[in-house]
């Protein structure tokens, strides 16, 4: 009966409980409702404030999913998973940032 916990710990997932899933679900739901609320009542605030608040909500939601559902944390068992995730995020930042930079400079040169 205790077998799933040993398998989870051997795979580096740690102790997984229904409580953690419930907390993650509630946080993800609240952040989703906040995002939809910001988009629905966009006339009440300036556009740049809404964009910043939506970006923060998206970042928080990503962190909630990584911690509560993908079980990425600072434990020694998760070190390689976190390093792989950080490297992937760095590559995406370089590719997307580089593409935006190239398109911006090309736009300036065409004007």
Summarize this entry quickly.
The chain contains four helices and no strands. The chain has 111 residues and is mostly helical. The radius of gyration is 19 Å and the shape is flat.
Which helices and strands appear, and what pairs or packs with what?
Blueprint: H1 3-10, H2 18-40, H3 47-69, H4 79-110
Keywords for this entry:
111 residues; 0% strand; mainly alpha
Descriptive report:
Helix content is 77%, strand content 0%. By secondary structure, it is mostly helical. The protein has a domain at 17-70. The mean pLDDT is 86.
Give me the Rg, rounded: 19 Å
Approximately how much beta-strand content do the residues carry? under 5%
- The end-to-end span amounts to 69 Å
Q: Given the structure, what is the number of helices?
A: 4
Structural class: mainly alpha
Gross morphology = flat
The number of E-state strands comes to 0
* Unreliably modeled segments: none
Overall average pLDDT: 86
* Percent range of helical residues: over 70%
Main beta-sheet strand count, sense and barrel state:
none
N-to-C SSE series? HHHH
